[in-house]
Amino acid sequence: MKHRRIPKRRAAVAGAGIFALAAAGITFQTANASTDTPDLAPRTLSVAKAGTLASSLTKDLGANSAGSYYDAKTKQLVVNVLNGDAAEAAEAAGAKARVVQNSLAELKSARTALKQDATIPGTSWAVDPATNKVVVTADRTVKGADWSQLSGVVEKLGGKAELKRSQGEFKPFIAGGDAITGGGSRCSLGFNVTKGGEPFFLTAGHCTEAITTWSDSNGQEIGSNADSSFPDNDYGLVKYSADVEHPSEVNLYNGSAQQITKAAEATVGMQVTRSGSTTQVHDGTVKGLDATVNYGNGDVVNGLIQTDVCAEPGDSGGSLFSGDSAIGLTSGGSGDCSAGGETFFQPVTEALSATGTEIG
User: Fold this and answer.
1) Has 316 been annotated as catalytic?
2) Which residues of 146-175 are buried (b: 16+ CB within 10 A; e: fewer)?
3) Which residues are 294's β-sheet partners?
4) Choosing from 166, 224, 316, 319, which is the catalytic residue?
5) What are phi and psi of 60, to 5 degrees?
6) Alpha carbon 143 to chain centroid distance?
7) Most CB within 10 Å of its CB: which of 61, 165, 297, 354?
8) pLDDT (tens digit, 9 = 90+) per residue, 256-305?
9) What angle do the packed helices 47-61 and 84-92 form, to 10 degrees?
10) For position 21, what pLDDT does the model report?
């Protein structure tokens, strides 16, 4: 993980806390070369317990595990496995097992091939456990020779990958306007955090790469950069000025706020909410993990969360959350909240670990 230290700058008095987040994502098809095993009454689980069970089964099943996702309708964890013995073990633990064709190693190999042979601006790829494939998406800028190259690589991968077309254009979400501002541009605050007992906030790394000192919507300076990582990752850490209010909550834009008490890993199928300074609050579902997106100009970001929540410029850095758990920071994508599109989030857990901060 790469991140660079940016010198702290002294900031002035701040106004009210600003909170936000955003997303938009791919709706994956459910076609899959898989066979459901006999139903042994998988347990009904909360998304948090499903995530814990998924981690445990991934460890226990080893190479026989091929990913998992949470079915929000049935409230069950669905685990992809490679053989009947692994299916029995997964179902004995309370999950619903599916015997699938592609192993995680094969899907990883497909991702490596894409990275080597199809690193093209305007593309993204992520493993979709529901289809047991790597879903490759090309935005509207991928044309001509680039499209031929990309489709050729995907075709060679056979049943391990599928290619989709987005009508939008992949780009980091950043714009001039309200919320947290600097240098004539605007982003959104993600989550308030602490480090050594002092207050900071997290936002997007492509925001902190472009802006070093931040102000609120009234033009009052609220903080300056302490840490930044972009591309590869997309997180930034800002040190608050003295006397700035910094409650651990997210603005719901209806006169209330969601308290944030902890950070959690995303799970495919998890129901999530985003709040952003441009488009305010929208709901959706996690569609993919460990996504790679190529924004162009050499800006390739890895390890992102993919959802079907919408977002627009100015929502960058804003919060993705599930209940009282912080999940992600808005990175970028395509589309808008009228037409939908694809959006990607930096996992909060990674940003907290890299910056040595805690939710609070």
Assistant:
1) yes
2) bbeebeebbeebeebbbbeebebbbbbbbb
3) 300
4) 316
5) -70, -40
6) 26
7) 61
8) 999 999 999 999 999 999 999 999 999 999 999 999 999 999 999 999 99
9) 140
10) 27
Rounded CA-CA distance 239/223 in Å is 5
Mean pLDDT over each residue of the chain, to the nearest integer: 86
- The encoded tokens of residue 97 equal 């097992």
Instruction: Give this prediction's pTM.
Output: 0.82
The whole-angstrom separation of Cα 74 and Cα 181 is 43
Residue 282 known to be catalytic:
no
DSSP-derived 3-state class of residue 241: coil
Going from the C-alpha of 55 to that of each of 95, 157, 285, 287, 292, the distances in angstroms are 12, 28, 19, 18, 22
10 Å Cβ neighbour count for 112? 10
How far apart CA 236 and CA 11 sit, in angstroms, is 17
Length of the chain: 360
Helices (H), 205-248: 205-210
Q: How far is the C-alpha of 137 from the C-alpha of 277, rounded, in Å?
A: 27
Q: How many CB atoms lie within 10 A of CB 301?
A: 25
Whole-angstrom Cα distance, residue 66 to residue 57?
A: 10
φ, ψ (nearest 5 deg) of residue 147: -65, -45
CA distance linking residue 133 with residue 349, whole number of Å: 25
Backbone angles phi, psi at 100, to 5 degrees: -120, 170
Beta-bridge partners for 232: 301
For 307-326, write each residue's pLDDT tens digit. Answer: 999 999 999 999 999 999 99
Taking the CA atoms of residue 204, residue 206, residue 212 and residue 216 in that order, the dihedral angle to the nearest 10 degrees is: -50
Q: 5 versus 236: which is more confidently predicted?
A: 236
Catalytic-labelled residue, pool 234, 299, 308, 315:
234
Query: Using CA atoms, how far apart are residues 155 and 9, in angstroms rounded to an integer?
Result: 51
- Helices 144-156 and 104-117 pack at an angle, to 10 degrees, of 160
Task: Indicate if 206 belongs to the active site.
Answer: yes
Question: Do residues 233 and 3 lie in contact, with contact meaning Cβ atoms separated by under 8 Å?
Answer: yes
CB 314 within 8 A of CB 297: no
Q: What's the rounded Cα separation, in Å, for the pair 44 and 132? A: 23
* From 103, 188, 206, 322, active-site residue: 206
